[in-house]
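Dear U.,

For the methods section draft, I wanted the exact inputs and outputs in one place so we can describe them consistently. I've listed the two proteins in the order they'll appear in the manuscript figures. Please don't edit the token lines directly; just add comments below if something needs changing.

First protein:
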Amino acid sequence: MTGHTHKSIYRTQALPRSSFQSRKAEGRMADKNVHEAGFTPGGIKGGSTGSEMMSKEARSHGGGVPSGGPTSTLQEMGAKSSTHSSGFTPSGISSGTKASGMMSQEAKSHGGETPKGGTTSTVQSVSMGGKGK
């Protein structure tokens, strides 16, 4: 079949560049907010919101920071820059993600509500640039 040109009947449609760029920027912002709160790849920065949270959480748990609590969760995400990819974004929690699963589980264990000061609400607050309170 030399001399014939094949024309594709399929057309692809890319996402608008601005939509892709805004999601990417939102992801960078969530990770940036967590880093600025003191949760970094090198550990929790002294004098930061993160160190205050760690101190308060340790005092309320007899000297240790529990695994799966707000401080350990934020530090894990800060170390890996995985806040956004876990589903915590500056505009809210993304459905179908680790974050939405955490929120659902926490709500089930607290009578249908996500408690203020719990892991989900604290991580979401920090990813949005808040202080986690």
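Second protein (the one for the lower panel):
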Amino acid sequence: MNRLLELLKVIDGDVEFDGKNLTKLKSQHIDRFLAKHARCRHYIYQKCVADDCAYCTINPPRIPEELFKELYFVPDSTVNANGYTPFDELYGTETDDSGRPSLTLKPQSTAKVRGFVHCCECGKRRVVYSEKRLCPQEEKSLIRVQEELLFVCCAVLFPGGQYQDIIIVKEGQCCSSPIEVTYYAGKTMVFDQICIHCGNIDVVETEHTRELQEQFGIVRPICQTCLNANRPVITRNALKTKNKKNKT
């Protein structure tokens, strides 16, 4: 991290970095540098080949200069009338990632829930989505990811390869994120009840949760540990109650 801070100070000598979270950096100089010299996409982050790059000045390329100057950004997937444009036709041109296959998928749809996978860091279950039911080979690949502890929250389930945009998990989740509501939907698959906050399989029912069940159509499971930590019981769909007057 100290080395990273040294590199950042080459661009902006006044920048402050806590060594933990790059997203909290506030520097117009660094923002302008990244806008000019880098390209960030969903699956890839690339560095430029510009001659006036401060980073390249102190960390020169390790390949011959004549080859380095012939490099371009890796192009994005681009849709045409016949499918996707070949790589050799796109290389060296300006593209965007609007044609990324996963943009056309809507993993939040409960009709596409196909299973779940455990994060190897936090242990929470993350729902797996696919347009079609998984075939035996796809199920084996998913099992392999689980057995070899290859998945962590915020990561792509199958980075690269044939399943990258076919078998997916919801984007933007981190280890602190709660269990997805689609886990509990039970339309295409029915899973065990687990705590919505931490994923603990030992959920409890208390007098308070029973009272909430009379007031709401949905009361999410919670464990005793989260109750003791004053985590809230998640509810949805308040029931309409009518006061009935006794006829005399």
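Candidate sentences for the figure legend, describing the second protein: The first helix runs from residue 2 to 11. DSSP finds eight helices and nine strands in the chain.

Thanks,
Y.
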